[in-house]
Amino acid sequence: MIDKLKPWAPILAVAGIFTVIAFNQSAPPAAAPIEVQTNTDASSPRVDQAAVEAMKKKLLAQAQVVDLVYSKGGPVQWQVGTYMKGSGVGYAETICMDLKDAGLVDERTSVRMVNMANPAARRGDFRGASIGHVRCRDGEDLGV
Description:
The protein is an alpha+beta fold. It has helices spanning 2-5, 9-25, 49-60, 89-101, 119-122; strands at residues 65-70, 78-82, 110-115, 130-135, 140-141. It has 5 helices and 5 strands; from the N terminus they run αααββαβαββ. It has a 5-stranded mixed beta sheet with strand order 1-2-3-4-5, with helices on one face.
């Protein structure tokens, strides 16, 4: 049996190497240590958790808002779910004004309006279901 495999030995050896390389490529990376970041930038105010909770309550009381996600350290701090049709940019700007009034805007604060009727939203792809994304510090429309 081994004699029959000898002509295939170079091919089998190469295939084995590729299998090992492919297997090693799919291994998960080593866990990196988690760094806890604290707010040490004097230009960025500390987030008042009571003000955040009050803003959540205020937004959820509005008829257009069906759900929201607040992520202090996320790339988008406020993701607001709605069933509105069309662009949500104007509504995101209004929410930014409310956030400014409550003292909840820093350099990174942005609001993304998410169309909850979009199947992407049900998969957790809020960017794919975005109908408007505004940076609050200057009102710039970020597109998605």
